[in-house]
Amino acid sequence: MHFVLTIVIVLLASKIAGQISIRLGQPSVLGKIIAGILLGPALLGWIQPSELITEFSEIGVLLLMFLAGLETDVKSLNQNMKSAVAIAVAGVIVPILLGWAGGVWFGLTTTEAIFLGLVLAATSVSISVQVLRELGWLNSREGAALLGAAVLDDIIVIILIAVAMGFFTGESTNLGLLLGGQVAFFALIFVLGRWLVPYFVHAFARFKITEPIVTAAIIIAFAFAWGADFFGVSGIIGTYFAGIALARTEWAHQIEDKVSPIAYGIFVPFFFINIGLPISFDGVGDQIWFIVIFCIIAVISKWIGCGLGARLTGFNTKSSIGIGAGMISRGEVALILASMGLGAGLLPQSHYTSIIIVVIFSTLITPPLLKMVFGKRDEHSA
Amino acid sequence: MHFVLTIVIVLLASKIAGQISIRLGQPSVLGKIIAGILLGPALLGWIQPSELITEFSEIGVLLLMFLAGLETDVKSLNQNMKSAVAIAVAGVIVPILLGWAGGVWFGLTTTEAIFLGLVLAATSVSISVQVLRELGWLNSREGAALLGAAVLDDIIVIILIAVAMGFFTGESTNLGLLLGGQVAFFALIFVLGRWLVPYFVHAFARFKITEPIVTAAIIIAFAFAWGADFFGVSGIIGTYFAGIALARTEWAHQIEDKVSPIAYGIFVPFFFINIGLPISFDGVGDQIWFIVIFCIIAVISKWIGCGLGARLTGFNTKSSIGIGAGMISRGEVALILASMGLGAGLLPQSHYTSIIIVVIFSTLITPPLLKMVFGKRDEHSA
Fold it and tell me: What is the pLDDT of residue A154?
């Protein structure tokens, strides 16, 4: 019964914090992340990180990206592919350079500094997706460029991390295998998404069982997530493309209607709350300058890099600033990379807490920045 | 990503097994439980029991009883209270007597035999609820009597188990505290259900957050579950009464619509699959007679006891046979009691596997029996 109480606390806290955030003119996501920091071990200690919270949070972000896929306008995604590439590439290069320079400045080894740069190159688009949805911008050209860039960013960073870990730890990484796996994954989901997915849902739709269609959709989403992970891509990329595949079926609307309560009614609040849980303020005083400088690096490196990528490929200044802001959030991806780096000895233990704070800060600043730049969109003006 | 694959396997297996079951003229629940036995460690070994599966399963049964509460006709529940009491009391006495007699016959000590009888006195109504819903009988007089009896059975068995454990292990059980807690719980949910619950949902309904109403409903359901557990009642009784409380609000229909995909789309399949997971066939050959005799005792003790209780309080023979059959399933409640008894040394380790098999058998036989007695109900004839 202990976990049932955790569910009550997480749902209550995240929804109330979200509502307060909205009343203060901010996206609800901001309040939810702050609620996690407050409830976590660093402050109140009402919620302790646990395997269950991690799993619920993981399912939450998988469903979030699945819903984003369902809402994605594939034509718009294709039309903005050039921008997406420019945003992703510039948004990887600038953080690596600034992260490396900052790391060396603060006395880290070259290896550590480069790895730190790589951690800062990872984007977590799920936060921005949710904020853009709230503001009504998810289905805009800007939203499409952002989603495309985030998918590419994930692929690029995973490859670079694999190369770096292989190079620095001396273990050989089979880069051909990794790249081959990624190519195989995208080829596979293209084929499966086009032919098997509609057939599968169609077969399930005739079942006389409870909730056949939403169950079929969840099976597809999670199978794609597992496949993505298996082939060396993030699980969220898998559910995102599962959403895109299902968006073309006749059940798209029904699936969205029924996955929404599953996502927002139970799992997604765990994702937002979970972001703040690993924070700790122990020894922060000693590294306050490191934290301040790296918070600035984290924000401006993506903002400038991605903003420039957008501006140079046809977006106007306001949209470019907004797209850059939307790529700042590092969230769960950077947290995973940081703990991988720590395990492999590529990030110094002494700076780990500070890096976590920087990552969480970048996630926290994204919702208000997006709101500031884009504002609430009048859906009818689209 | 490992658990994501488990979700895919559980959903796929339970829904396909459910569909096969329906095609063979059986309630889908039967196929789902069998799927769990097949996939579990005893046979295929594709799914291993884990904390996550247990939690998902627990949430599943909590939501199942919550939905049952939402659909319950309180007037009908009150009208059938006399029958419910008779069914529950007779359904506790007969299994204890037969279980005790059978245990002594097979050479158990008196203590072990009585505790075994107590395990057999626990009803798990969730399986029957789902079967009756599938057959269209949940909202009948028979369904109301069954639900009322199951709630009372839970209360009686918890009290008896507490008394027995205190008596046999020599630790003093504060019976007054337990009874007082149960009374306090029912008083509390009556007051909260009547006044706080509608107010709480009303407050949430005005929130501008995602899925406010279904989230409020889940918060209430799980808070009631935790409260029930805290005051010494089963969690499912808590969510059941949360459902009853919400059924009276204007949002009842919307809540049912949105909790249904959460329940059946992800958590409930884990509940059905999880029932079969603890089964093991090691050393079954040595105790085959114990298993056979106790399977018979498990079935006829509830069937006769509860059926008699129903018959003597105004139900006709067919309905009484059906109600008796619906109370046979022991499911998760008996499994929990058995493992408690094992831990306290009140059940012999040597017979534990056999007892698990008996409990699962009683759960497995209930769906086809209910289908046989009641058949599919024409909703319009009600």
Answer: 84
Per-residue confidence at A382, pLDDT binned at 50, 70, 90? very low
Structure confidence at residue B381 (pLDDT): 46
Which residues, including other chains, have CB under 8 Å from residue A191's CB and lie 6 or more apart?
none
Contact call for B222 and A7, based on CB within 8 A: yes
Please determine, for residue B88, whether its predicted confidence score (pLDDT) is greater than 50: yes
How much is the pTM?
0.89
CB A27 within 8 A of CB A367: yes
Residues written for chain B: 382
Per the CB < 8 A criterion, the answer to whether A86 and A313 are in contact is yes
Residues 269 to 308 of A: which have CB under 8 A from any B CB?
A: 269
Of the partner residues A1, A207, A225, the one whose CB lies closest to the CB of residue B15? A207
Number of Cβ atoms within 10 Å of the Cβ of B308: 17
- Residue B218 token pair: 């889940």
> Which domains, ranges and CATH numbers included, belong to chain A?
2-381 (1.20.1530.20)
- Residue B185 contacts A where some CB pair is shorter than 8 Å: no
Interface of A with B in 329-358 (CB under 8 A): none
Contacts of A28 (CB under 8 A, 6+ apart): A17, A18, A19, A21, A22, A134, B208, B209, B210
Choose, out of A215, A229, A255, A371, the residue to mutate when testing the contact with B (most B CBs < 10 Å).
A215
Q: Do A261 and B266 touch (CB under 8 A)?
A: no
Count H helices and E strands in chain B, helices first. 18, 0
Q: What mean pLDDT is predicted for residues A141-165?
A: 87
With an 8 Å Cβ cutoff, are B268 and A210 in contact? yes
User: Shortest CB distance from A19 goes to which of B12, B207, B264?
Assistant: B207
Q: Is A22 on the interface with B (CB under 8 A)?
A: yes
- Does A218 contact B at CB distance below 8 Å? yes
B255 in Cβ contact with B205 (< 8 Å): no
Please give the structure tokens belonging to residue A229: 């992970």
Question: Cα-atom radius of gyration of chain B, to the nearest Å?
Answer: 20
| Spatial contact of B281 and B26, defined as CB atoms under 8 Å apart | no
For the segment A320-341, what is each residue's pLDDT rounded down to a tens digit? Answer: 999 999 999 987 788 888 888 8
Determine if residue B249 is left, alpha or beta; phi over 0 gives left, psi from -120 to 50 gives alpha, anything else beta.
beta
Q: Which residue has the tokens 């994501």?
A: B4
Supply B276's token pair.
Answer: 């079969």
Nearest to A51 by CA among A353, A270, A352: A270
In this structure, of A1-15, A368-382, B31-45, B352-366, the range with the lowest mean pLDDT score is: A368-382
* Cα–Cα distance for residue pair B96/B93, rounded to 1 Å: 5
B336 Cβ partners below 8 Å, 6+ apart? none
